Amino acid sequence: MNDFNQLINDIDAEVRATGPDAVAQLRAFEAQFTLAADLIALRKASGLSQKQLAKASGVQQADISKIERGIVNATIGTIEKLAQPLGAQVRILRRDLAAAA
Question: Can you give the residue range of the structural domain that contains 15?
Answer without folding.
Answer: 3-100
